[in-house]
Amino acid sequence: MNGKLLTAETPLIEVLTPFRYSGLMKVPRERIRNFCIIAHIDHGKSTLADRFIEKAMIIDKRKFQNQLLDSMDIERERGITIKSQAVTIPYIGKEGEMYTLNLVDTPGHVDFSYEVSRAISSCEGALLLIDASQGVEAQTLANMYMALEHDLEIIPVINKIDLPSADIDFVKHQIDHDLGLDSDTAVLVSAKTGEGVDDLLEALVEYVPAPRGDENIPLKALIFDSHYDPYRGVIIHVRVFEGTLKSGDTIKLFFSENSYKVEETGIFRIDLEKKDRLTSGEVGYIIAGIKTISDIRIGDTITVVDNPCSEPLDGFKEVQPVVFSSIYPVDSEDYEELHTAIDRLKLNDASLVYEKDSSAALGFGFRCGFLGLLHLEVVQERLEREFGLSIVFTSPSVQYHLFLKNGEDHFIDNPLEFPDPMQIEYVEEPYIKATLITPSEFVGGIIKLCLEKRGVQESMHYLDEKRVELVYDMPLAEVIFDFYDRLKSISRGYASFDYEIDDFRRTDLVRLDIMVNGQVVDALSQLVFRENAVPRARVVCKKLREEIPRQQFKIPIQGAIGSTIIARETISALRKDVTAKCYGGDISRKRKLLEKQKEGKKRMKMVGNVEVPQSAFLSVLKSD
Fold first, then answer.
1. For residue 587, is it within any domain?
2. How many independent structural domains does the chain possess?
3. Same domain, yes or no: 480 and 425
4. CATH number of the domain where residue 458 is located
5. Domain shared by 66 and 116, yes or no
6. Domain containing 588 — which CATH number?
């Protein structure tokens, strides 16, 4: 053997014997390697995973497509990974021994950082991917620290070496200086062309340690992901740390305390490949007749009822939504369709939280909680594409902690739940610790943006002569609107941004109401910081003036805090030319017609209702 994976030239007998039946063969634990690929967004994780799969020949060439592990159209179009995936890859080493490589592909976006942490905790090694043209970025650092916390063996990989703008020496300097890793161990690859991938696989086998564990002691397995199959129910993705798991076992989940009978176990070969049992060190799946994905919690520990383990694995936490918005159908008759669509979406996305909601302006809908703005956008696109629905989202908000004068306290995320200010003692809002890495020439503009967003600088230091790392404390509410877009505009796309939820701090919060023709449009109400209320109200009123069609009477659009008007725009009346038929004669004939029109307009204004179109609600969301 030459140390490479299977190729088209490999003799047929070698293909058939070790690989086509490898699901039935037992690979010793010392020749199993569990690893993940971690990186900043768009540094080539999914493309590298494609090369591994292509070289292992575990899928027919006719079925192969780019970003194979990204199963959703949105993932392929945007070049992002939303759901992490797993795949088992067979590999023959230099000595001719067969290895099993279990790859867990991780999401790159900050919204899904808990999923990344669970994927990392199921591995012994990590490939830290760095773009040869862009270098170390904010999430490169964040993911590396996460891997170090879990005591993983980290192999630095410099990707995209085929690009004309690749600066390999500079990236090696960053690996030494910024990451504190040994640049001599860095593997140079081009995931696009496949250059260096064989060397990377050899490095994986050499440096990543084999999993530890004992298959004869009580079962202890980690749930690192799950997905829903309409025919088989919930399919749980597990990493077995101790013991053995086989079909027929009755398993128990530690935190939900539910019990299920295992119907099937197996491994991931793009499709599911059935296997008699999963033993310590292996990554695979379980089917146990579970009908609802929300019954399964990522990070939970599985054990068997007959001989349970004494304590669960560390690191479990409940995933909490941080951004909230209401969804309404454009046509109120589509409410039942929307309800069905959200129920079906929830089957594949356990982190989506929703409850029924209603609005005087938009009718019946749902109040939803999301992991972040990207999660919100993904849900919106999936509802529109997969279910063909026309929907309206209200302005996103965060969760605030209210302390009332009567001693009570509670959390709210909906502006309509905001009580009378006279009842409130004080309010707290969530803060984040934001890390920004930017080329030094954009520092001034980024500092100005952070100050505008009420950010407080924690630290600033030069990583090298060209790049600066800024750390800011800032309110989450300021980030969810337009912060990321403006950051990319100021830095021409070169700045990178990562954040983690920090704590709650006091704030001066008010409810901003938008009134159209004297009527409050509850779907446009927002919870805002008092100093931001006037500029926000002006922007919303201006947008609505452009979107609401003119009527035959004046329409005032006002922003108000309580009974105080803080912004106003007026849509001028659409004037019908009633004097067009008067082509001569005394002026009093024209005046008589104009006076009659004036009286009619007064009556119309008294009873006139204004219809706010869907485009007006959408424009307010994009107003920032």
1. yes
2. 5
3. yes
4. 3.30.70.240
5. yes
6. 3.30.70.2570
Q: Tokens representing 133? A: 């043209």
Residues 164 and 300 placed together within one structural domain of the fold: no
The DSSP secondary-structure symbol of 190 reads B
What pLDDT was estimated at residue 61?
Answer: 52
CB-based contact 110:480 (threshold 8 Å): no
Q: Greatest CA span in the chain, whole angstroms?
A: 109
Beta bridge partner(s), residue 529 = 509
Higher pLDDT, 571 or 8: 571
pLDDT-derived band of residue 74, with 50, 70 and 90 as boundaries?
very low
pLDDT tens-place string over residues 342-371: 887 776 676 778 888 877 667 788 888 887
Which one of 272, 304, 336 terminates a domain? 304
390 plus 373 within the same structural domain: yes
The answer to whether residue 152 is domain-embedded is: yes
Mean pLDDT of 257-275: 83
If one compares 207 and 518, the residue with the highest pLDDT of the two is: 207
DSSP 305: S
117 close to 125: Cβ distance less than 8 angstroms: no
CATH of residue 25's domain is 3.40.50.300
pLDDT tier, 614 (very low <50, low <70, confident <90, very high otherwise): low
- Cα torsion angle, 623, 563, 430, 416, sign: negative
Task: Note whether 514 and 536 are within 8 A (CB).
Answer: no
Q: What is the CA radius of gyration of the chain?
A: 29
Residue 310 lies in a domain: no
409 with 501, same domain? yes
pLDDT score for 84: 55
Q: Distance between CA atoms of 137 and 487, rounded to whole angstroms? A: 14
* Strand partners for 468: 438, 462
Alpha-carbon distance of 608 to 601, in angstroms, equals 10
Question: Residue 16 pLDDT > 70, yes or no?
Answer: no
Distance, in Å, from the CA atom of 524 to the CA atom of 80, rounded to the nearest integer, reads 31
109 and 16 in a common domain? yes
d(CA 171, CA 326): 44
- Of 160-174, 435-449, 582-596, the least confident: 582-596
Q: Is residue 348 assigned to a domain?
A: yes
Tokens encoding 18: 């070790």
The pLDDT-based confidence of 525 (bands split at 50, 70, 90) is confident
Q: Which domain holds residue 243?
A: 220-304
Asked if residue 289 and residue 370 are part of one domain, the reply reads: no
Share of the chain above pLDDT 70, in %: 82
CA 564 from centroid of its chain's CA atoms: 38
- pLDDT digit string (tens) for 116-140? 777 788 888 888 888 888 888 767 7
Cβ(212)–Cβ(284) under 8 Å?
no
Residue 466 pLDDT: 75
Q: Whole-angstrom Cα distance, residue 66 to residue 383? A: 24
Q: In whole angstroms, what is the distance from residue 511 CA to residue 311 CA?
A: 47
One domain for residues 490 and 527 = no
Q: Residue 368: which CATH number?
A: 3.30.70.870
pLDDT tens digits for 556-595? 888 888 888 888 888 777 766 666 577 666 777 777 777 7
Kindly report the number of other CB atoms within 10 A of residue 294's CB atom.
14
The domain boundary, picked from 456, 489, 507, lies at 507
What is the CA angle 258-262-266, rounded to 5? 130
Kindly state the DSSP code that residue 110 receives in the 8-state scheme.
G
